[in-house]
TrEMBL record, chain B:
InterPro entries documented for this protein: MrpA_C/MbhD
Primary location group: membrane
Designated name of the protein: Putative multisubunit Na+/H+ antiporter subunit
The keyword Cell membrane is annotated on this UniProt entry: yes
Cellular component GO terms, alphabetical: plasma membrane
Length: 131, 81
C-alpha cells in the first residue's frame, strides 16, 4: 500500500494529465450542448499536448537555445544540457491544427443554429426526426 | 521545473476545466476557457517550452476566445447543462 502511494505521488503530474483528459472526454460524450462538446474536445487536445511536452523535460537542463551560437561554430554542444526540443516542435503543429479545427467547428455550429434555431443535441434530434 | 508551482498551477487548470464545462452560460464558458488556456501557457513556460507557451497564449487564449465569443453572439447563450 505504501509503495503504491509512493508511486502515485512520484508521478503526480501524469495522473493529473489523465484526470484532465478524462474531463475532456466526459464533456465530449455526456454534454448536451454542441459548444460544450467543442470546449471538451479542446481540453482533451491540450491535455495530450501537455503530456508530450512534459516528456521532453530534463532535470538541470536549460532552454533549447544554443548559448553563444553566433561565431563559435566549432564549439561542442552537449545535448544533455538542453531540454529536448523535438516534442515542443511537434506540439506547436498540434496547437495550430487544434485552433483550425475549432474555427471550422464553430462555423458549423453557427450554420446549424441558423437552420434549426438550437444548439442542444436532443432538440436537434427532435427537429431532424420531424422532417 | 519547481514542483510546488507545477502542482498549484495544475490544480488551478483542473478547476478551470471543470468550471468551463459545468457553468450554465456559454459566455462564462468562453471566459473560463480563456483562463484555462492562460494557465496552461504558464505551465508550459515552467516546463521550459517557451515557444509552445507563447503560441498557446496568442492562439489558444486569444484567437480561440475571440472565435468562441463571436460564435456565442451569433447563436445563443442558453445551455441546459
Amino acid at each position: 500500500m505504501n509503495e503504491f502511494l509512493a508511486l502515485i505521488v512520484a508521478k503526480y503530474n501524469f495522473w493529473l494529465y489523465i484526470i484532465l483528459m478524462m474531463i475532456g472526454l466526459y464533456a465530449m460524450i455526456a454534454k448536451n450542448n454542441l459548444m460544450k462538446k467543442l470546449v471538451g474536445m479542446n481540453i482533451f487536445q491540450t491535455a495530450i499536448i501537455l503530456f508530450y511536452v512534459s516528456i521532453g523535460y530534463k532535470h538541470g537542463a536549460t532552454l533549447p537555445i544554443i548559448q553563444g551560437g553566433h561565431g563559435t561554430h566549432d564549439a561542442v554542444i552537449h545535448a544533455a544540457d538542453y531540454i529536448n526540443p523535438l516534442p515542443h516542435v511537434l506540439m506547436l503543429t498540434a496547437i495550430v491544427v487544434s485552433v483550425a479545427t475549432f474555427g471550422v467547428a464553430m462555423a458549423l455550429c453557427v450554420k446549424i443554429y441558423q437552420r434549426y434555431q438550437t444548439l442542444e443535441e436532443d432538440e436537434l434530434r427532435i427537429r431532424l426526426s420531424e422532417k | 521545473m519547481l514542483w510546488p508551482i507545477d502542482l498549484i498551477v495544475l490544480t488551478f487548470v483542473i478547476f478551470c476545466a471543470i468550471a468551463a464545462i459545468t457553468v450554465r452560460d456559454l459566455l462564462g464558458t468562453a471566459i473560463l476557457f480563456s483562463a484555462y488556456s492562460f494557465l496552461m501557457c504558464l505551465l508550459w513556460a515552467v516546463m521550459g517550452a517557451v515557444d509552445v507557451a507563447f503560441t498557446e497564449a496568442s492562439v489558444g487564449a486569444g484567437v480561440s476566445t475571440v472565435f468562441l465569443v463571436a460564435a456565442v453572439f451569433r447563436t445563443s447563450r442558453r445551455t441546459k447543462d
